[in-house]
Amino acid sequence: MPRSAKTYSAIIGIAAVAAVTAIVFVMPMIPALSQQSHLQQKSSLKVAVVTDALFSDMGWGESSLNAAKQIERKYGFDVAMQDNVEIPDIELTLKKYADAGYDLIIAHGVQWGEPALSVGKQYPNVKIVVFTGLVKSENVASIFPMQQEGSFLLGAIAGMMTKTNVIGYVGGEEYPNVINIFEGYKQGAKTVSPDIQVIGTYLNDWDNPAKGKEAATSIIRQKADFVFHVADTSGQGVIQAAKDGGVYALGAVQDQNSLAPNTVLSSFILDVDKAYDQAVDSVMKGTFKGEIHKAGIETGKGAPGDGIVYLAPFHGLKDKVPENVNARLKQLLADILEKRLAVPERLEESVSITS
């Protein structure tokens, strides 16, 4: 998240727009006319994707960039993209695109929630979707990925494979959504190993790999043999510390195995492509609703259903994972999907905002 902001916010956002799948029946004698009309609708939609993160962070921000490009490829129109927006400039940025006549603005990050409500009131014809938001109004919706379901499974992997009975985590900043993720991680570990010790720290810095490496090194010195990060570019330092220390790292938001193929065992991934596509599809079909949609685990990228959180494969490390661990992991995933196992949110009740 998952970084959603560069500074702490007591307001976390997180919710979603559920896209409605429609089947269009076309009269046999006029397919070309129907197709032409649909293409015109696609080309006329103006979409902007904005974030306070960096598109180059190989995680949270890059996932937004990739999803925006996927929208362009699928629908054939240009998407305006802007990253590294300073927190004080968020509302002005939203207004800039609203004034320019954009139909849909997808805001990638928790800090965009309150400004989205404010701008939404001023521009009732503009639709705004906040990814990892928990805000809603008539023309503002949120998509909340239930990331704790993914981190629960990572914690279970660490809990089953640890040889020291100590695992760790490093967060970019201590705000509710990140706390929620790490609480899921702890729950997963303790579900499979009740006596496990979980050590964690927060950096108050999302873009400082050296600081991330220092924090992770300290945790590794306390005998942790798994380190999980949710820390954007600071997390690259966490992965480097794990590599140097000969322990496993667990990544976030994207499959981060490529950063250290012999170190990053798995990652929880956000299916941002799917979430953005649902938002665009709802606007194009006129089914957009100002709702908070909470989407949890899925079996893999683009899987049927509303889920937008899944685990990365083990890649070249798959032979390091015992068969009993794989079997238990599959069972835990099935239990969550079929609602036999709940991974509760650990969020303050006051974070939900409705306008």
TrEMBL record:
Domain ABC transporter substrate-binding protein PnrA-like: 46-300
Keywords noted in UniProt: Cell membrane, Lipoprotein, Membrane, Signal, Transmembrane, Transmembrane helix
Compartment annotation: Cell membrane
InterPro entries given in the database record: BMP_lipoprotein (IPR050957), Peripla_BP_I (IPR028082), PnrA-like (IPR003760)
GO cellular component, one term: plasma membrane
TM stretches of this protein: 7-30
Membrane topology: Lipid-anchor
PANTHER family: ABC TRANSPORTER GUANOSINE-BINDING PROTEIN NUPN, TRANSCRIPTIONAL ACTIVATOR PROTEIN MED
Family: Belongs to the BMP lipoprotein family.
Protein name (record): Putative ABC-type transport system, periplasmic component/surface lipoprotein
